[in-house]
Each structure stands twice: as structure tokens, then as C-alpha cells.
Amino acid sequence: MDGLLNEIIAKYNYWIYVVLMMIGFYAMIGKRNLVKKLLGMNIFQTAIILFFVSTGVKRGAGIPIVDKYEVLKHGVDASTVVNPLPHVLMLTAIVVSVSVTGVALALLIRIHRRYGTLEEDEILEKIRQ
Predict the structure, then answer these.
(1) Which residues partner with 62 through β-bridges?
(2) pLDDT mean over 101-122
(3) Torsion of Cα atoms, 37 then 40 then 45 then 51, to 10°
């Protein structure tokens, strides 16, 4: 039991990401206001980005900028440098997330102008009429 508790405490950041993901998921599924749904989606995306960035961390590792002559002579020890791929992919994900949020906000403005509300139930009721 003590080993399990130590394992859970050692991975506390992953538990925080899971909690953030569930908060975002609940906001997307459980809320009826479209702005709250959008905020939930942003929280969910942020949790995923934080998770991927944290998986790319190595304690005591340096940045992967090496001298090409040194690499040709001795090679590169992969345990001494950080893999930049997760960070680069998440930088792309952040750009996509900001773009999606901007387009979604523009659509929400159009929806509000057309229906006078951002509540999902009221919009569906007005569409059915």
C-alpha cells in the first residue's frame, strides 16, 4: 500500500492533468452555454499540451544543440539531451488551438446576432420554430 501511495505522489503532475481534462470534458458535455463549452475545450486542450510537454522532460539533460564535428567524432548520448519533438509538436498544437478559439469566438458572435442567445437549448428551440 505504501509503495502505491509513493507511486501516486511521484506522478502528481499526471493526476493534475487528468483532473484538468475531466474539468474541460465536463464543461464541454455538461454545460449548455456555448461560451462555457468553448472554455471547457480550451481547458481540455491545455491539459493535453501540458501532458505532452511534461513527457518530454529529462532531469539533468541539456538542450540538443551540439557541435557537428563533436557528433561526428563521438556521437550523441541520447540520455544527455532533451528530445525536442514533443515540444515542437505542442507549439504547433498551441497555434492550432488559438486559431480554433478565434474562429469559434467569431462563430459565437454570429450565432448571438442571429438568435439573440448563446444557450444551446434556446437556439435549438428557435431553429425548430
Answers:
(1) 81
(2) 96
(3) -160
Entry pTM = 0.81
SS (H, E, C) the chain: CHHHHHHHHHCHHHHHHHHHHHHHHHHHHHCCEHHHHHHHHHHHHHHHHHHHHHHCCCCCCECCCCCHHHHHHHCCCHHHECCCHHHHHHHHHHHHHHHHHHHHHHHHHHHHHHHCCCEHHHHHHHHHC
Q: Give the angle 60-62-63 at the CA atoms, nearest 5°.
A: 150
Band (129; pLDDT cuts 50, 70, 90): confident
